[in-house]
UniProtKB/TrEMBL annotation:
Domain of life: Bacteria
One Pfam family, short name: Band_7
SMART domains named among the record's database cross-references: PHB (SM00244)
Organism, as annotated: Pseudomonas marvdashtae
GO cellular component: membrane
CDD domains: SPFH_HflC
Biased amino acid composition, Basic and acidic residues: 1-19
Lineage, uppermost ranks: Bacteria, Pseudomonadati, Pseudomonadota, Gammaproteobacteria, Pseudomonadales
Keyword annotations: Hydrolase, Membrane, Protease, Transmembrane, Transmembrane helix
Name of the molecule in the record: Protein HflC
Compartments (UniProt record): Membrane
Region span, Disordered: 1-35
The keyword Transcription regulation belongs to this UniProt entry's keyword annotation: no
Residue span, Band domain: 59-233
């Protein structure tokens, strides 16, 4: 019995030893777990915090592009404006948001507008406006408040402004100042300047928009106005033609009168010169006749008779005269030979 007890004791002791070893091993594993797994949660938490910080920093940065301004809104209300290109900052959403505003040039057309002129006629005119948002804080915020940063809405409202200004401006001009065959009568440049003056200050004060250029894109006439314009042009051309005809007749009369006056002067001068020449020739002829008579009276009488015949007888003259009467007697008798010979002697 004592032996069986001794045999039972080792078995129990072995069993206890195995259980103790198992319990000790289990206790050792629990004691070593915090040392092995402890650093990993803190490392994961550090990475998570770093990623969150990076996401917050990225969400806070704002890029301002060239040709744009960026409006920082705080809970929907404009807080500040970033104008310089580059990076800026803001509080992340939902505290603040970044809205880009385009500062580049834009062109809007008024469309065809039927307006009346000062002389009661109608014209169809279309104008264009080149504009841009003024690049400063106040005007950018003004543009944001007016149209909620919607360029299409701004263009629509600008067209309305231009249409009203066209009606007012056209009432200050006659149709002849806008449509005319005489370039000196056309005042399109003045029309455009007055149109720009009417809308420039209003657009800047209301929308923060600066007007760079205003021009007439198209100008046509309705059928009634076209007929009236053609009639007016025809009347103007007829008036001009009548005036030019009258001027031509007046100038022709002046030229004719001057020519007649010059002709009378020339004729008088020629008459005077002819009289002087005739008198001089008569003097010279008298001297010649005197010398001839002194040298040969018979020859002188013959020559004078021939001169007389040449003045009273033409190729168509028929005369019936006595041949023995002077001065025809010389044609029959001829000059006495002796007297002629005696007259030629020195």
């Amino acid at each position: 019995m004592s032996q069986s007890s001794s045999h039972d004791h080792p078995d129990h002791a072995g069993h206890d030893h195995g259980y103790a070893g198992h319990h000790h091993g289990h206790h050792h594993a629990h004691h070593g777990d915090p040392q092995v797994a402890g650093p990993f949660p803190w490392r994961r938490m550090s990475w998570a915090l770093l990623l969150v910080a990076f996401a917050i920093a990225a969400a806070s940065l704002v890029q301002v592009r060239s040709g744009e301004a960026t409006v920082i809104t705080r809970f929907g209300n404009p807080a500040r404006v970033l104008l310089q290109p580059g990076l800026g900052w803001r509080w992340p959403a939902p505290f603040e948001a970044a809205i880009p505003v385009d500062l580049r040039l834009r062109t809007s057309s008024s469309g065809l507008q039927d307006v009346g002129t000062r002389d009661g006629l109608r014209i169809i005119v279309q104008a264009y406006v080149t504009w841009q948002v003024q690049g400063d804080t106040d005007n950018v915020q003004r543009f944001m408040r007016a149209v909620q940063n919607q360029p299409d809405e701004a263009a629509r409202q600008i067209r309305t402004f231009v249409g009203s200004a066209l009606e007012t401006t056209a009432a200050s001009y006659d149709l002849a100042n806008l449509v005319n065959t005489d370039p000196s009568q056309v005042r399109i440049a003045d029309f455009e300047a007055q149109l720009r003056q009417q809308i420039e200050q209003q657009l800047l004060a209301t929308y923060g928009v600066r007007v760079l250029q205003v021009g007439i894109e198209r100008l046509t006439l309705p059928s009634v106005t076209l007929t009236a314009t053609v009639d007016r042009m025809r009347a103007e051309r007829e008036t001009i033609a009548t005036e030019r005809t009258a001027i031509g007749k007046r100038e022709a009369a002046q030229i004719r009168s001057s020519a007649e006056r010059d002709a009378r002067i020339l004729q008088a001068d020629a008459t005077v010169k002819a009289a002087e020449i005739e008198a001089q020739s008569r003097v010279e002829a008298a001297e010649i006749y005197g010398k001839a008579y002194a040298g040969s009276p018979q020859l002188y009488n013959l020559l004078r008779s021939l001169d007389t015949l040449s003045t009273i007888v033409s190729p168509g003259t028929k005369l019936i005269l006595r041949t023995d009467a002077a001065p025809f007697r010389v044609l029959v008798d001829g000059p006495p030979t002796a007297e002629l010979k005696g007259g030629t002697q020195p």
